[in-house]
Each structure stands twice: as C-alpha cells, then as structure tokens.
C-alpha cells in the first residue's frame, strides 16, 4: 500500500466545530461537547479534502518508528506540558478570550523537564530553535521505547529489537476482506506513525486479549482505507456511521495530497464510542509470522512466541484470538 501521511500533530476536524454546554460523552468530567456544524472547515478546503484518501481512525495510542542507537526503534508519544504556574497563566489568558497563538511561552522555563532522549514531533513549528506549543499549550513529541521500561511495557510487547521486528495488523496483501497479523521488519516502518491497540490501551474498544493474556498490536496510520464513503455532508456521514457496517469505526482520517491530515470523530456528530460490534471485529484474521529462524530464541511469555505457536491459523475475528496457557 502507498505510504500515507504520518501523525505528528493534532488533527483538525473536517467541519467547523462549536462548543455545546453539556457533559461530554468522550471525556469524563468535561462539562462541554465539541460538535461539528454543517460547514466544512477552511483547513479542509485548503488541503483539497475532496481529493483526499479516507481511512479508518483507529482508537489506540500513537507511536512512531525512527532511528535510535543506530537501529530502527519504536517511540511512544509524550507531550511536554507546562508547569503549574505557566498553565495557570495560559488558562487565565484563554478565559480573557485570548487567542492561544498570541500567548507568550518561555519554553525553557514554562515547561516540565522532558527525558533526555525526548524529541519534538516533526511538524512542530520552531522559533529560535525552540518548539512552539500548540493551541492546547502542549509540545507533542516522542520518547524511545526501551525493552525494560515498565511505563511503556505494552509498547515494548509488540517489538523485538534483537530481530528488529514488530507485530503489525493490516489487510492481507491478496485479500482486502481478510486481516493479517505479521512480524514486519522495523526498517520497513521507518518514519511511519502507527496506532498501538490492545488489552490495556484506551479501555480496549476492540476487545483484544484478556487480563491474563494481554494482546497488543500496531496498525500503520492509513492502513485501512475506506471504500464507497458518501459525499462530504454532515447528514450523509451521520447516516453512514449509524447505518453502514463499514461505519462501525471510531472516525475517519482523510490523508490529503499535501500531507495534511483531517479527521472526524463519531463524537463530533453526537454519536457514541466505543460501540459493541466494531467493523474491525467483523472480518476474519490470519496469522502470518514466518519466523522459523527465530522461534526458539523468543522468551516463552512474549507475544512473538505466542503468535508463532498459532502461525497460519485463521480466526473469525480479532476477539477470538486467545492464547493457551
């Protein structure tokens, strides 16, 4: 599949949004909703949204593959956030109806320290060598996922640095109706962003694994292209999400020709997420590890070992993959 855009910053909504003063169904304790109007945003029009490639927005946590210690490495998303004093100043500025872009940040003094190996996301604007915070007062960035870092143990479970491979879920190359879990060389994923999904990520909306045998996978951004999407109108998209099998997804991300990414989430349209039966779980999945040379070298408890034991097996849906003790 053609490599599409990578997620290096917050994606704008395809529609102009408005704030409604009622409890959010997306974020607990948030007293307002952000809903889409029927007007397509200027950012979407400027990016030529009508010629963009629509893909499934997957519900997980964002990751990035780039070089570290002279080899391809998985990196976890880590946004630098302001310290308490700076955050208070920023919130007071916003409450006085200030434009977040006009707020003055002293990046060296206003932000909590970052790990030494932290890097800013690629598309972040920089002034005098310092990254510029986004409209939320955050500086998106990445930290490398080390093998024994407990904070990122679920990220670590989907990569093996000795063999430089990652566990990836995507379409089967010869059958678009079939999903495939395979061990992919990390070098093939260099400079791509991916979504980590699974048992311990975001409440596990896809029902993968269980507490005793957690299951996590990487999905390259843009991997699941959407066919036959209706016209770009609020009511048409709403009907598609509500009444179409392919619409049982978290949202849509349009990959524009200039690299820009534009999204719409079910919550923007006043719809619920997560939902009981997702489109991702409506398709069969085959295991294609092809790891004969390294099977015996894996730790007995690791995901690569578990998957190698069920290599070439086909399951009716992702939910049905349960590892034996």
UniProtKB/TrEMBL annotation:
Its cofactor is Mn(2+); Mg(2+). The keyword ATP-binding applies. The keyword rRNA-binding does not apply. Its EC number is 6.5.1.3. It holds the Pfam family RLIG1. It catalyses: ATP + (ribonucleotide)n-3'-hydroxyl + 5'-phospho-(ribonucleotide)m = (ribonucleotide)n+m + AMP + diphosphate. It is an enzyme of class 6 (ligase). Keywords: ATP-binding, Ligase, Nucleotide-binding, RNA repair. GO terms for molecular function: ATP binding; RNA ligase (ATP) activity. One of its GO terms (biological process) is RNA repair. Functions as an RNA ligase, in vitro. The ligation reaction entails three nucleotidyl transfer steps. In the first step, the RNA ligase reacts with ATP in the absence of nucleic acid to form a covalent ligase-AMP intermediate and release pyrophosphate. In step 2, the ligase-AMP binds to the nucleic acid and transfers the adenylate to the 5'-PO4 terminus to form an adenylylated intermediate. In step 3, the RNA ligase directs the attack of the 3'-OH on the 5'-phosphoanhydride linkage, resulting in a repaired 3'-5' phosphodiester and release of AMP. This is RNA ligase 1. The lineage of its organism: Eukaryota, Metazoa, Chordata, Craniata, Vertebrata.
């Amino acid at each position: 599949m053609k490599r599409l855009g990578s997620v290096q910053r917050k994606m704008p909504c395809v529609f102009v949004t408005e704030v409604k003063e009622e409890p959010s169904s997306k974020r607990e304790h948030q007293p307002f909703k952000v809903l889409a109007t029927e007007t397509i945003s200027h950012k979407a029009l400027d990016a030529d949204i009508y010629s963009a490639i629509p893909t499934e927005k997957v519900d997980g946590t964002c990751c990035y593959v780039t070089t570290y210690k002279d080899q391809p490495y998985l990196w976890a998303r880590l946004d630098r956030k302001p310290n308490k004093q700076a955050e208070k100043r920023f919130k007071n500025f916003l409450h006085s109806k200030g434009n977040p872009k006009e707020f003055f940040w002293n990046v060296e003094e206003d932000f909590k320290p970052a790990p030494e190996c932290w890097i800013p996301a690629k598309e972040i604007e920089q002034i005098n060598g310092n990254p510029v915070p986004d409209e939320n007062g955050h500086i998106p960035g990445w930290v490398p996922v080390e093998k024994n870092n407990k904070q990122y143990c679920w990220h670590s479970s989907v990569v093996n640095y000795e063999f430089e491979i990652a566990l990836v879920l995507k379409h089967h190359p010869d059958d678009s109706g079939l999903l495939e879990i395979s061990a992919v060389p990390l070098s093939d994923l260099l400079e791509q962003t991916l979504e980590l999904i699974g048992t311990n990520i975001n409440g596990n909306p896809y029902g993968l694994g269980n507490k005793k045998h957690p299951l996590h996978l990487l999905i390259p951004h843009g991997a699941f292209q959407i066919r036959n999407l209706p016209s770009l109108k609020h009511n048409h998209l709403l009907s598609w999400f509500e009444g179409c099998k392919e619409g049982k997804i978290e949202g849509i991300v349009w990959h524009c020709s200039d690299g820009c990414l534009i999204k719409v989430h079910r919550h923007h349209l006043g719809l619920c997420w997560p939902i009981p039966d997702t489109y991702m779980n409506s398709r069969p999945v085959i295991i294609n590890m092809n790891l004969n040379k390294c099977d015996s070298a894996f730790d007995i408890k690791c995901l690569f070992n578990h998957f190698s034991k069920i290599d070439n097996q086909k399951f009716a849906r992702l939910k049905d993959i349960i590892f034996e003790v």
